[in-house]
Design a protein that fits this description.
Beta-Lactamase, Helix Hairpins, 4 domains, 13 helices, 14 strands, about 55% helix
Length: about 450
């Protein structure tokens, strides 16, 4: 009998049988038997046994129907208190309640996971768009708004090709062959985007857009750089080749040889300077900037730069002055010397004979300033934004004649960037130019001394 009770309970609750469920089923069964026996006795007493049994079972069915109605009302509004139905019905209600709470927890878990996935996809640096079967937008992240011009909320349900109007994208979507990425140029904002499509699910697509604008620009810079270097090296190589051909002539005299050797030496030195500057610039651009802890006495370095400038001036007899305050600069000594030397060389090349050049080092409340001022021909305003670009020359012929490589100010810019500093250029046609290196206060350490002026 006990086994029958357990099988009935398991079938009714579709769950492992518990002692309470078994007891409830036993009570329900005894109730049914008691009602049937009572009805049978009453019917026998009045000569209608079957009628009494029918009445008893009818009353029992009404009771169960009332419990079922209360259960249905609670299921429709589960926020209400759990009804007390008695007997096996209470076990059923408890099982339903436990299943409902488990489903709610599972739903919250899935919702949280989906929200985290959306947040992670939204933080991706690439544009991401989910398309439905007919290439309708189901979801997109914030980068898709920046790179592809999509609106995260407004464009849901729209066709992607109607919003990103690019013939190549439409053909790419229709082709079904997504092994190779697609490059989209001339997009809004001037971006160049590499698009890759990944099919998933039954008929959905994930569109990933990667911003490669900077890579395209780097490739263009590389091409221009190679062309510029080739052009810069062609001239001295052409001169050297011409002199060598001349020296092979049997009619060349020793005087001609001596003159040609001097010119060949000059061109070889020019190529050497160019190669040295290229190597220095490449090192500055490719090696990571380290935090420097050297204390550089800029006033002493300025005096050394003046002595170098006087030696390089030669017969031109420039008037070179130093105005330096006490104060130490935190940085790489050799890199700073290279940058400052390039500024002094630049001033010497563009200042006429007997001209004046001033090397200054001063401190202010926001940091330090190293500047080189010349009184040369000056620079037109439209040239100034491009002066730190490689091989940019205001006057190409004059720069080459004075021995410039076109890389000096590029080196200065890279050195200053590694020292958290910047270059400020002020110039007036006919009055000269001032190149100022502005260092932040974090790079300055004060020192007690007096200002010096040397001429």
């Amino acid at each position: 009998m006990t086994g029958l009770f357990k099988r009935c309970v398991a079938w009714a609750t579709d769950s492992p049988v518990t002692p309470s469920a078994t007891a409830a089923a036993r009570r329900q069964l005894w109730g049914i038997l008691a009602a049937g026996a009572g009805g049978f006795a009453a019917g026998a007493l009045f000569g209608r046994a079957w009628f009494g049994v029918a009445v008893a079972f009818g009353l029992l069915l009404v009771l169960q129907w009332n419990r079922l109605r209360r259960l249905h009302r609670w299921l429709a509004r589960p926020a209400q208190p759990i009804p007390e139905l008695g007997g096996l019905w209470d076990e059923v209600v408890r099982e339903v309640h436990r299943a409902d709470r488990a489903n709610a927890r599972h739903k919250d878990l899935i919702s949280g996971l989906f929200a985290r996935l959306q947040a992670a996809a939204g933080a991706m640096p690439d544009a991401m768009v989910v398309l439905s079967q007919y290439d309708l937008i189901e979801w997109s992240n914030t980068q898709a708004a920046r790179l592809l011009g999509l609106d995260v909320r407004r464009d849901v349900g729209m066709r992607l090709v109607h919003l990103v109007r690019h013939p190549a994208l439409s053909a790419y979507l229709d082709s079904g062959d997504y092994h190779e990425p697609l490059i989209l140029k001339d997009l809004a904002g001037g971006y160049v985007v590499e698009v890759q499509i990944i099919p998933f699910g039954a008929s959905q697509k994930l569109v990933i857009g990667r911003d490669i604008t900077h890579l395209i620009r780097l490739e263009q810079m590389r091409s221009h750089f190679v062309a510029d270097v080739s052009h810069e090296l062609r001239t001295p190589l052409t001169v050297l080749r011409g002199f060598l051909e001349t020296l092979q002539d049997k009619g060349v005299t020793m005087d001609d040889v001596q003159g040609n050797l001097a010119l060949m030496q000059e061109q070889a030195e020019r190529m050497q300077r160019l190669i040295d500057d290229l190597l220095a610039l490449a090192r500055l651009e490719t090696t990571p900037a380290r935090r420097h802890d050297e204390l550089v006495d800029v006033r002493a370095m300025s005096q050394g730069l003046r002595d170098l400038a006087v030696a390089l001036s030669g017969e031109r007899h420039h008037r070179i002055e130093v105005e330096a305050e006490p104060g130490l600069l935190i940085g790489n000594r050799e890199e700073l010397r290279s940058a400052f030397t390039n500024l002094v060389h630049n001033a010497l090349r563009h200042t006429p004979a007997e001209g004046r050049i001033i090397i200054r080092w001063s401190l202010a409340g926001d940091g330090g300033r190293f500047s080189v001022q010349d009184y040369g021909e000056g620079i037109a305003a439209h040239h100034i934004p491009y002066l730190t670009e490689r091989f940019y020359r205001v006057d190409s012929g004059r720069s080459r004649a004075t021995g410039g490589t076109g890389l000096g100010l590029s080196i200065v810019r890279q050195v200053l960037a590694r020292h958290d500093a910047r270059l400020v250029i002020d110039s007036t046609i006919g009055s000269g130019s001032t190149f100022t290196c502005v260092f932040p206060l974090s790079r300055i350490q004060a020192a007690a001394a007096t200002t010096t002026t040397a001429t």
